[in-house]
Structures
1.
Amino acid sequence: MSVSAPVKLTIKDYKSELHNDWCPGCIAPDSRIITRSGSTLIVDVEDGDEVLGHDGAYHRVTEVMSHWHDAPIQRVTVQFLGEIVLTDDHLVWCAAVIDGRRVMDWRPAGELRPGDLLAYPTAALARQQRAAESVGAGLAARVAIPESADEEYVLLGVEGNERIDYSGFVHNLEVEDVHSYVTEVGALHNCGDFGILTGIQMALAKLQLDPDKVACFSGIGCSGKTPHYINAYGFHTLHGRVLPVATGGRLANTGITVIALGGDGDGYGIGAGYFVNTGRRNLDFTYLVHNNNVYGLTKGQASPTLSKGKQTKSMPEQAIQDGINPIAMAVAAGYTFIARAYALEPKYTADIIARAIQHKGSALVDVLQTCPTYNDLYTKEWYEGADLAEKKSRLYKLEERGYDGKVQDPTDVQEIVAKKAAAVARSYEREPIPLGVYYEAALPTYEDEIYKRIPAMKDTPLAEMDTFKRDVQPLLEAMR
Ligand SMILES: Cc1ncc(C[n+]2csc(CCOP(=O)(O)OP(=O)(O)O)c2C)c(N)n1
Ligand code: SF4
Ligand SMILES: [Mg+2]
């Protein structure tokens, strides 16, 4: 697409051809999804349709996916509802009653055992019951709402979970806000990485950046897959090495927008040295960290952002060392735009990413991300404060409380120090955690310094220079 393209670019223009397969959670094509208009085969659900989320409300589908699956799969049978065939990693909304208290959790289908309880939205059951009544009383009795139903959920027992051979297409949906959808047999969830992907695509559309003028670099991790799904240049690099490669990309072609991204393990653990040194350079680029407190791809070990004393479901014991504070680290390293977003709020995340891209200098956006597979501590429900005596979000937006982290006079060292101190102070706030821009300062970039030494680079990026026809003789003479 050329810069002068007459059409307005939309989020669709930034989607790649590849199917989106984070957490290979997918279901068989004959599964029916509860939609606003009734129930629809998953193969017939389209972008923009409204489907029921596990919260009992309707939400818009933002992406439909399918791919060929040639491996064993689970057939789960649920009391009253029947069967569903799904991949073993697909997360199902479950409930357990512990000490008389109901505890809700997303659990991989492969781990379900007979007697486990699924939490099924009452709204979905009521809809099925109405549908059944229209075709005969016998079926209506089969899906009658049991007495254990409360306002939101009915708890239904798992009757069987078989592993069966499978060779065929499987399907999945990405759903706005909740990242979940309800089938006729269970409520299923997708990963928070989708929210960040959508946030990036929305930001690119907001800024109307041509896909051929954007390059996304990633490290290794679940998050590392992101560039594959974005219609732009992409480079999936090595674990922890995304920043040096992105730096090279930006310096080689100063005519493109560079977005680097990766996990919290990738950036704050193995890549921590690069994280510090990239900040002090103030190169003009954006770095997005998918902060899910775990090493998602390698099955959920504690990442550097998990605090002392915390224990997620795949840890045998509590963490005995403290977590790092990425915002404070970024302040110390010299990033000139430092912000935090939340993956399950893609519109807000998109606004923050757009501001980070527009900022001239190194921008860090730490995106709090749920990992429903391995992080059972910082879940969507935890961020919403659903467990508090009075439900109250554990997040707040800095700008809504009058905070302004922008340095007005970048030549005033005292103002810089004061704004950095304020950002660090906010970064230690817990419950609620601040989202938004912590710190912003317009300072000379690395490119500004390079242009002073090589003025030609200002007008012509290195990638566009004819490096083969350069006369190096004077250089050789100078070195004699
Ligand atoms: C040099 C090297 N060390 C270790 C690994 C194994 N490894 C792959 S991904 C990963 C951690 C991923 O966690 P994170 O960066 O937080 O990304 P997430 O999967 O959570 O998005 C590790 C340790 C590797 N690929 N390369
Ligand atoms: S971050 Fe967690 S939920 Fe997302 S793909 Fe990785 S393991 Fe699955
Ligand atoms: Mg991680």
2.
Amino acid sequence: MRAGDVRALARAVSLVEDGAGARAEVLAACRAYAGGALRVGVTGPPGAGKSTLVDQMARWLRGQGQTVGVVAVDPSSPYTGGALLGDRIRMQGFEGDAGVFIRSMASRGAMGGVAKAAADVCSVMEAAGRGTILIETVGVGQDEVEVVGVADVTVLVLVPGMGDEVQSLKAGVMEVADVFVVNKSDAGGAERVEAEILAMQGLGVAREGWVPPVVRTVATSGEGVAELMMAVRRCAEWKKEHGLRARLGMSGGLRLDHLGVAVKSIAAARGFYEALGMSVTHEETVEHEKVRTAMLPLGESRVELLEPTEEESVIGRFLAKRGEGLHHIAVQVEGIDAMFERLTAQGVRLASDSVRVGAGGHRYFFVHPSSTGGVLLEIVGDAGEGGA
Ligand SMILES: Nc1nc2c(ncn2[C@@H]2O[C@H](COP(=O)(O)OP(=O)(O)O)[C@@H](O)[C@H]2O)c(=O)[nH]1
Ligand SMILES: [Mg+2]
């Protein structure tokens, strides 16, 4: 797949989507190479021209020599005539062009939610070296709004004469839009929608620094698509410069790495988890931390049981003071240095004075419980950042 084999990419995407046994392994392997693509979310009401626009954006990117991945979270998108048909489908006009890889997925029922499923497919496409990933989603339901969080830059497609339909869009979608598109601007009335958007921006949804531009397009002819892509790039660059993790808060950028549970005895505690159907895959004593750990995978995360080897240790003191229980939550992030800087800048109380390097080579730091609602939070870098 890394060498550009499209069939291998299709198989990997299927493995990740189907939730079968190899899923976690494939994902973990892909994550080591993920993070390099620009993910562009294209959202808006049904019929606004999202699919037509995505097709044009893909064409434009191909013209620039880029490879493209398309994730359509919309069963009605015309790439397939049926979202569940799978990976052999090609967007009209891209047959035979391995540079555009399209995957449609149903918007409901996926394991762990559609946003997570979309994020996972993005990770695989990224690992396969796709330069830009276009994610089409209908901006009407909560599921779909969450998909937007998987993207670095979000494009909201509106059309003239929408009137009440604008109101029917989730308020959340309006707020996350980085670029507004007035599509079907050949139909007349574009000025009015544009004026409505500008008026709305005046009403306090404007965010610091980046004012979402409004771009007019005619998706059927490709008019305005170059301008749109420029606006998307400017936004991506702006976010990068400002250290903004566009995917923050969504499964694309953050994920639960593990839960650390302090126990008096691993031998006594593991029985419950085993009865639950989990199993210990790895046990280890970390000498310098005076702790013995047992790892129990849980989806892509894991529970870590922590047993002190001495009373005078972090876990030993925790047990003496608070008793057995949740000791910390570990969250994996992309861009741990930027995260450290941002939290520091925001005055969050950290329990580490810098990003540390752990025994296995992984990088981490701790956030003090007084900033998190009472739980010690470990932030772990992702595998691609000099991790183990
Ligand atoms: N006149 C005009 N029709 C468009 C334009 N963009 C898309 N359409 C048409 O609008 C319909 C819906 O487009 P589609 O891309 O499927 O919308 P989606 O539901 O948002 O993905 C199709 O018949 C398109 O050909 C445009 O800019 N102008
Ligand atoms: Mg569509």
